[in-house]
Design brief:
single chain, 97 residues, mainly alpha, 3 helices
């Protein structure tokens, strides 16, 4: 037996505003509402229980970390060594809630 698909629910938050991540996180910690920030920015607050992740199934995909250098010239040996060392020695999973 197949159940009918429920209609999507919508909700408009009253008085939305745009703020810096630190301000939004602090406001959410004081009970001021929801905030959308990168996981590493709130990792300590989530682990301490000051914040909680809501709707985890609807989180956007992780953003890639990029190392950028000028494309108009060859990458120096120092920069190449830094990139290789960084990729080989770092765990880029910042958040593990």
């Amino acid at each position: 037996m197949r159940l009918p698909t429920p209609a999507p629910a919508t909700w408009t938050a009253p008085g939305g505003s745009a703020v810096e991540e630190a301000e939004g996180t602090a406001h959410a910690e004081r009970g001021g509402g929801l905030t959308l920030v990168l996981g590493y920015q709130v990792m300590d607050a989530v682990k301490a229980g000051r914040l909680e992740v809501v709707l985890p199934g609807f989180e956007p995909p992780p953003l890639p970390i990029q190392l950028v250098s000028p494309g108009t010239r060859l990458v120096s040996a120092n920069v190449r060594a830094f990139v290789d060392l960084t990729l080989a020695t770092r765990d880029w999973r910042f958040v593990d809630f």
